[in-house]
Amino acid sequence: MKSKVLLFLFSLCFFFFDCESNRHQQGEILYLNFCASCHMDDGTGLAGNIPPLAQSDYVSQNQGRLACIIRYGMEGEVVVNGKTYQNPMAGIPQLSEFEIANIINYVNQAWGNDYGYLPMNVVRDGLEECRE
C-alpha cells in the first residue's frame, strides 16, 4: 500500500511539474546570454538606443526576418513602436538554427508578447533568404 501511495505522489509531481512548465527555458537562457546585454533582461531595450523586444510591433510584424537579424545583424534605420533607432546590431553567427528558433520563440511569449510559435522551417527559410 505504501508503494502505491508513493507512486501516486510521484505521478502527481510529473503532472504538476512537467517539462512544459517552462517550455522556453533554453530560449530564455540563450536570450540572457546573447541578447539581454543590449535588449535588457525584460526586453525593454536601452532608452532611445536599442529597440525594445517587449510589446514590439516590429517583432510581431517581421517574424520571418528575425532569424536573419539574429544571425547576421542589422544596420540602418528601424522603426519600432513609432520610434526610430539607428544603432547597428551585431550578428551572432555561432548560434545554430535550433538555438535561434528557441530565442525567437522565447521572445514571442515573454514580457506579455503573444506572437505565437515560429516553426523551424520558417527559421530555416529566413536564413536562406538573407544569404542570397
Could you please describe the fold and organization of this structure?
- There is one protein chain.
- The protein is mainly alpha-helical and 132 residues long.
- The chain has a single domain (24-131), classed as Cytochrome c-like domain (Cytochrome Bc1 Complex, Chain D, domain 2).
- The protein contains 7 helices and 2 strands; from the N terminus they run αααααββαα.
- The protein has a two-stranded antiparallel ribbon.
- Helix 6 crosses helix 7.
Structural class: mainly alpha
What fraction of residues sit in β-strands? under 5%
Q: Major sheet: size, sense and barrel closure?
A: 2 strands, antiparallel
Order of helices and strands: HHHHHEEHH
Total beta strands: 2
Overall mean pLDDT stands at 88
Main-sheet strand order equals 1-2
- The low-pLDDT segments are none
Secondary structure: helix percent: 40-55%
Q: Treating each run of at least 4 consecutive H or I residues as one helix, how many helices?
A: 7
Indicate the overall shape: globular
Give Rg in angstroms.
18 Å
CATH architecture: Orthogonal Bundle
Q: What is the CATH class name?
A: Mainly Alpha
Overall structural domain count: 1
Task: Using the coordinates shown, work out and report the CATH topology.
Answer: Cytochrome Bc1 Complex, Chain D, domain 2
CATH superfamily: Cytochrome c-like domain
Distance between the termini: 66 Å
